[in-house]
Design goal:
By secondary structure, this protein is α+β, with helices and mostly antiparallel strands. About 65% of the residues lie in helices and about 10% in strands. It has helices at about 5-15, 15-25, 45-60, 65-70, 75-110, 120-165, 170-190, 205-210, 235-245, and strands at about 35, 40, 190-195, 200, 220, 230-235. The strands form two sheets. It has a four-stranded antiparallel beta sheet with strand order 4-3-6-5. Helix 5 (about 75-110) packs across helix 6 and helix 6 (about 120-165) packs antiparallel against helix 7 (about 170-190). The protein is elongated, with a radius of gyration of 33 Å.
Length: about 240
């Protein structure tokens, strides 16, 4: 029957000698015998046991879990539980890594819009990314409030076309104009902007913000801190106060 030294069994299983020695100290791979000179000697059964340990380690099982499994007289009674625990652990790790990946990809997209990059730009991007959830809520509120107004407008236009009720256009305007003013005020009292030059978060005057050129996520404004005029990044106002403090 073959006998393996520590170095031989380590080479056979693709691990280091130190790993084999560590498993011995943890009691999960104790050598079958010792030579006259005190060297560890492992049998074929030990080699097979080592291969099982290496396989379980590749799957992410902890030393304690492997020790528990190997010590069981009926390992089948605990293997399902250990597998379930490991699956849950891996799912959590996958979720965390996926979240990190999404943040990295989002940051990569944001970096493309930064003209004058600096270390402070990273802080602006991080703040904008964390702020997006609240900003989406503001946009969703505006969208939902616009649905009934839009229905009234389309209804008035339909009656004008089908029945010739031209005066319905005045009703439409009477609803749309006040709504436009109110929703605009709601919007600009709930958002603020980050200056790409000095990284100050500021709240523009309503008139300036209302008439400014804009994209879905930026608006061309003048920073009250440094005087820079350009496209500033939009963020939700509530967290803005926390940052400025």
């Amino acid at each position: 029957m073959s006998k393996y030294t520590t170095g031989e069994i380590a080479k056979l299983c693709g691990v280091t000698v130190r790993t084999v020695q560590y498993y011995d100290t943890r009691g999960i791979l104790v050598p079958s015998e010792l030579s006259e000179g005190g060297r560890r000697l492992y049998s074929e059964d030990d080699a097979n046991r080592m291969k099982i340990i290496c396989f379980l380690r590749e799957l992410g099982f902890s030393i304690d879990a492997i020790s528990q499994l190997l010590a069981e007289d009926d390992p089948g009674s605990v293997i399902d539980l250990l597998i379930e625990q490991q699956v849950n652990t891996l799912n959590e790790e996958i979720g965390e890594r996926r979240e990190k990946l999404e943040k990295l990809l989002s940051m990569q997209r944001e970096l493309k819009s930064v003209q004058n990059f600096s270390v402070d730009s990273i802080g602006d991007i991080a703040y904008t990314m964390n702020n997006k959830k609240k900003l989406r809520k503001i946009h969703a509120t505006m969208l939902l409030s616009a649905i009934p107004v839009t229905l009234i407008e389309w209804g008035a236009i339909a009656l004008w076309i089908t029945n010739g009720w031209w005066w319905m256009i005045f009703i439409c305007a009477a609803v749309a104009i006040p709504y436009g003013i109110l929703i605009s005020r709601y919007y600009f009292t709930h958002v603020a902007y980050i200056c790409p030059q000095c990284h100050t978060v500021f709240e523009p005057k309503f008139k300036e913000a209302f008439w400014a050129a804009h994209t879905p996520s930026t608006r061309k404004l003048t920073c009250p801190s440094c005087g820079h005029r350009g496209f500033c990044v939009e963020v939700a106002k509530e967290e803005t106060k926390e940052k400025s403090e």
